[in-house]
Amino acid sequence: MMMISHFKGWLAKWDKNIVTQDDVETQQIVTDKLMNAFSGIEDLLHKSDQKAMLKARGVLTPGSNEANEKEVIAMFENQKKSWYKGLKTISRDMTYIKSILENIYEIKNRRSRECFQLRAENSRLRKEIEQLKQS
Fold this sequence. Notes:
Elements: H1 2-13, H2 23-57, H3 65-79, H4 82-134
């Protein structure tokens, strides 16, 4: 019964202006957004390489040595363009951010677990103190 009254008191003090969301859900949303942006960039870069290679091959027979050589050279030239390098850098940065995000959430979850354990221990000790006072 005491736990219910504490919970009701906590609810009464809750700031309704604070938007809350489950950490797992938030982490999934952020990860999905990063991965969508990453795949969009990588798809654009891949299509750009394909277009450059197709243009370089021209009317040559696909798979021939000459066609393969021209395609590879065209792909390397395409990848030297400043916009290509910029998007590739952004793509790598997003991969790094995703890995850091996972680490941050892991640390946060450990801290939250520790806080809950400390609160439980604090509550238990307060009850013991109250019992000793009453004795």
